[in-house]
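ok so for the tutorial part 2 we go from a plain amino acid sequence to predicted structure tokens. step 1 is just haveing the sequence, like this:
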Amino acid sequence: MQVYGTTLQSRLFLGTAGYPSPEALLQAIQSANVDVITVSLRREGSGGQGFRELLQQVKCRFLPNTAGCYSVKEAVTTAHMAREVFNTSWIKLEVIGHPDTLQPNPFALVEAAKILSQDGFQVFPYTTDDLIVAEKLLEAGCDVLMPWGAPIGSGQGLCHIEALQRMRHYFPQTPLIIDAGIGAPSHAALALEMGFDAVLLNTAVAQAQDPVAMAQAFALAVQAGHGAYHAGLMPKRDLAQASTPLFGLAEF
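step 2 — the prediction. this is what the tokens look like for a chain of 252 residues:
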């Protein structure tokens, strides 16, 4: 998988918030064998240097995010601070528009994406499944899109499958990563079966009874979904179709 000129072996991006212990977090990352982990600047601020040093043990690439930002100014300022702290031009851009659904604000998102792209950032925008917003984000300089599957932390899976399918159809060359709402490995497998390039999740692993085992389950699901997509899924049919030939049957 190629993202901003970087080759990634894993199609699972893993968040780092809400784990029962630092040890569980490290073991989950290792169990999933991911290349990219997301981290909030707010989490870094609360954990200090120790939290960053903890994550550096796993040798993953950091994807800092602007979680909790509600305005363009706040998101841009947070992104600049994250670039200094984590020494990366990658940024997962979140500009929240609704406090209950945590739905992205598409107008502020596009504006912030344009500013950050011009400032040398490689932007991973958390967006909706709206095609017009997607086009505007690409025009703003984004090379990847991260549409939500469902509201953050809801575990609902892929709520608007037809809209996501249209997005995959309209942007065949753009890396598309499902971000938010993934609650079960089957949700992740379905996203990859639909042709999406990767999934990003946090809560489903961090709040599992066994985060380490769940992380591995998601890694296997992503591999299975990606393999199935490229192997070619059989089409759905309205009626049954026998898999055994009719000739050679006994006659009475």
